[in-house]
Design a protein that fits this description.
Strand order of the largest sheet: 2-1-3
Helix content: 25-40%
Number of helices: 6
Mean pLDDT: 90
Low-confidence stretches: none
Order of helices and strands: EHEHEHHEEHEH
Radius of gyration: 19 Å
Largest sheet: 3 strands, antiparallel
Shape: elongated
């Protein structure tokens, strides 16, 4: 099941039949919040597109992240990220990588994002010039590219 987290509410009044009265009131606010839904991914996609058309911005989030009472600690996530980078860096002998850093701008409600920049890659103008990893906020697993693309595609 899924919910929608609004970063910014609607500029114009919602007229969609997909939105109930309680949800309509929430979508007009400018405070970031969950709408409190328990709907399918397809329904969430339709609703988010409808909200986007009314100038709202938000993202689809599995309800398990909204309802989690115990999240994977940031410090634990940093340990997982460093372990990941240690393994990945071995694939690039002779390349110097800086210490891992947290990237709040790329993190989400579902994962922490860390990066380790490469001195050589940056000097060569490679983009992004770093290794990145996303650590799940519930169980600490490393997000796969397909897992990330599936939900990140539904952020407006």
């Amino acid at each position: 099941m899924f919910d929608i987290y609004l970063f910014k509410g609607c500029i114009q009044s919602p007229e969609s039949i997909l939105l109930g009265e309680k949800i309509t009131q929430k979508t007009m606010r400018s405070v970031p919040e969950y709408l409190g839904l328990n709907i399918s991914l397809l329904e969430a996609k339709r609703m988010l597109v409808s909200l986007k058309n009314m100038k709202a911005t938000g993202t689809i989030v599995p309800t398990k992240y909204r309802d989690a009472t115990l999240l994977f600690d940031f410090d634990e996530a940093f340990v997982v990220a460093n372990s990941f980078f240690a393994t990945e860096k071995m694939k690039y002998p002779g390349v110097f990588f800086f210490e891992a850093k947290y990237v709040s701008a790329y993190s989400s409600l579902m994962y922490y994002t860390f990066f380790s920049a490469s001195k050589e890659w940056l000097a060569a103008g490679l983009i992004p010039g770093a290794l990145f990893v996303n650590i799940d906020k519930i169980d600490g697993h490393i997000w796969t590219d397909s897992e990330k693309k599936e939900l990140d595609a539904y952020t407006y």
